[in-house]
């Protein structure tokens, strides 16, 4: 006699499938994924507005759902519980992106400040007699009047 029980996954309700999955039945969890994957993906797509990211994050949510299935108490539907997981996964990713953008902007600001600081030092050049004199800055050079011959050319 075969000791493995055969479940009728398609006709089982979510509560039954969750119970079987909690006991290690991966096929029961696969049925849950099959039933709810479109809804979970759609939620990720709404939040991320990018198909590839939505696919990756919805898969990450399914992995977390499997790993944390023992925490599902049944106070809400399985679909609601999974929706909450995918929302949290997407929010984490959005926060991470925001942090990366902020760090990137701060790095750009620092680089810009360094360039400005370096540009503040007046370079010196030597005149015909070997004496050093400051080189005019670009802004100062633009304000110098040109001789009339140069203006008409």
Features:
153 residues; mainly alpha; two-stranded antiparallel sheet; 67% helix; 4% strand
Helix content: 55-70%
Sheet/helix structural class: mainly alpha
Oligomerization state: single chain
User: Topology as H/E string?
Assistant: HHHHEEHH
The backbone outline, from C-alpha atoms, is rod-shaped
Give me the side-by-side strand order of the main sheet.
Answer: 1-2
Number of strands: 2
Largest sheet: 2 strands, antiparallel
Rg, please? Answer: 33 Å
Q: How far is the first residue's CA from the last residue's CA?
A: 105 Å
Structure characterization notes:
- Helices cover 67% and strands 4% of the residues.
- Helix 3 (51-67) packs across helix 4.
- The chain has helices at residues 14-22, 26-48, 51-67, 78-120, 138-143, 148-152, and strands spanning 124-126, 132-134.
- It has 153 residues and is mainly alpha-helical.
- The chain is rod-shaped and about 100 Å long.
- The protein has a two-stranded antiparallel sheet.
Q: Could you give a short description of this structure?
A:
With 153 residues, the protein is mainly alpha-helical.
Ordered list of secondary-structure elements with their pairings:
Blueprint: H1 14-22, H2 26-48, H3 51-67, H4 78-120, E1 124-126, E2 132-134, H5 138-143, H6 148-152
Antiparallel strand pairs: 1-2
Helix pairs in contact: 1-2, 2-3, 2-4, 3-4
